[in-house]
Amino acid sequence: MEQTLNQIFNLVTDPYTGIAAWKERLQKKVVGCMPMHLPEELVHAAGLQPVVLWRSNEPVTLGHAHVYTFNCGLTRSVVDDAVKGKLAVLDGIITYDLCLQARELPFIINRNAPPAYLETVYIPGPVTAPVYKDFLLENFRNLKASLEKFSGQTMTQDALRQSIALYNRQRGLLRQLYALRRQTPGLIRAKEMLAIVQSGMLMPKEEHIPLLENLIAELPKRTVSSGKKARVVLSGCMCQTPRFDLLDLIEEEGMAVIDDEIYVGGRYFFHDVAETGDPLEALAERYLNRTIPCPTKVDWTNHWGDYLVDWVGQQKAQGVVTLLVKFCPPHLCYYPDVKKRLANANIPEVMLEVEHEVVSLEQVRTRLQAFVEEIR
Length: 376
Ligand code: SF4
Hints:
By secondary structure, the chain is α/β, with parallel strands linked by helices.
């Protein structure tokens, strides 16, 4: 198991080398997909290998000439990596227009470091009327045609169904791992869990599934320290992985993360895609109706704050740690209302800003110490 975890940490720490290695071995074209809503299954069914774009561990330098310093860490990091030539490991990139900062990416990348394939998908923000499903389906059909042209391979309905089944298999195994952590808080460190999820975004699902099976078999044998910890859940953190030292700090201060609904976490796999009916419609349906409420979507029938209140109750969590990506307008717009709803339900909550750059962890530690005193 330690070997599996090492393999996972190596990949998420240095995706460039890891992806280059399996790409060479599998001889497949690799397409980077912007988080959070692109249907990777479509890329896979076209005979290509999707990976989810990631935030690098390096400070942004050259990228600052091309992207605003008040963009979120992920978009700044992707631009920086692109202009430094580090994304040359990708044969293609797919972005979408769902938030303002992601919307700029294709123009900047196309102008400064164009890959062989660059596509933008238009995904509706509002989701409640039938017209949005038609619009989304039309854009998924356009993406399918564009991927077929790039790969030179026709995507059959059966191929798409098989890809959906493969992705659902991975989602199911990740849910099993999360269930293990809920049963035994502390069994899996928060950073381990997020590294496990992120590694699944950076390697073929066919190779990630056996790693997950190994972890599910071996992790229950681990010895867990018996000290009493406060049970908390993580919320938010759109698009990017939080810094691991921040997660360590939460645990060092006497909390056990029992669940999360962040993107590089539960949000990525919580809901399956239906395996019956038209597969393209099933992918559209998942985005429209089968995701955890997301601030990049406008859906007044399914409020994020209300969802959190119910979910926290189900998990019997003592508090919520909100991870808010600095300069992420969708989350910033929703946060005050979510905070109010949690407060109205007497659920303690603390918000930590997630930055790409180095932050003062000692200030964060002081806030976490105050929070843990409140919830114990
Ligand atoms: S949703 Fe937030 S984190 Fe994601 S790309 Fe947009 S601004 Fe960045």
